[in-house]
Design a protein that fits this description.
With 231 residues, the chain is an alpha/beta fold. It is built from eight helices and seven strands; from the N terminus they run βαβαβαβαβαβααβα.
Length: 231
């Protein structure tokens, strides 16, 4: 990317993350232009905590990780001044927002289109990824290799992509398939991509997905469905 001072925006989907969202926002580097927290029907004080930390808060009533991400993308796309790079980050403080510069570096230095922050390649706190996350991730990336001939190590939510490329690939998934859809469409649309190691720690609170049997089953089904959907 030739722009020496790229415009970087961040989208953070959030559902009942009042205890962690302020920590996430406060750790995001100052060079980020805009932090969008998309409140996805939180029943706690997530909105108030995000506003107090200085983020812009949007509301998405349709429940789903992808729905929240799409809400943020649509909001940005409707504005005149689009960012050069869009970063996605979880609201539970399991990722390290301070590593955002590491995640966008391949875009700035090597003009890469999309960068995945890989937990598999980075340092993980013991117990930060539950067994169902680890094995589910391995199954998904193995299937992706078999079906699409591409090798990833993770479906990590901490990722960066050129905004114009994100619009170009036309994201659609409204829930658990969001991350894998982006990686598949990047491959199919011949975007350049890479992974960088990122650190990972135990999240604040309990996961709404892997913390429940229903969430784990639903997420696994949707990820596998998405993998075959675009084959």
């Amino acid at each position: 990317m030739k722009n020496e001072s790229p415009v970087v925006d961040v989208i953070i989907p959030a559902y009942n993350e009042e205890k962690s969202i302020g920590l996430v926002i406060n750790d995001i580097p100052d060079f980020v232009r805009q932090i969008l927290v998309v409140n996805n029907n939180s029943r706690d004080n997530t909105v108030q905590a995000a506003l107090a930390a200085g983020a812009l808060v949007l509301s998405e009533e349709r429940q789903g990780y992808g729905s929240a991400c799409l809400k943020g993308v649509d909001y940005i796309n409707e504005k005149e001044n689009h960012p050069d790079i869009l970063v996605f980050l979880d609201a539970d403080y399991s990722d390290y927002p301070t590593e955002l510069d590491k995640v966008i570096e391949p875009i700035l230095r090597n003009d890469i289109d999309m960068v995945i922050g890989s937990r598999a390649l980075g340092e993980k706190e013991t117990g930060s990824m539950l067994p169902q996350q680890i094995y589910g991730n391995k199954i998904a990336i193995t299937l992706m290799k078999w079906i699409y001939g591409v090798q990833f190590t993770d479906l990590g939510p901490f990722r960066a992509i050129k905004f114009n490329k994100l619009i170009e690939i036309g994201m659609r998934d409204k829930d658990y398939g969001w991350t894998v859809e982006m990686q598949i469409k990047a491959v199919k649309n011949k975007l350049s991509f890479c992974e960088v190691p990122v650190s990972y720690r135990k999240r604040v609170g309990t996961s709404k997905i892997t913390g429940t049997i229903k969430g784990t089953i639903m997420a696994g089904y949707k990820i596998i469905f998405t993998l075959f959907k675009y084959a």
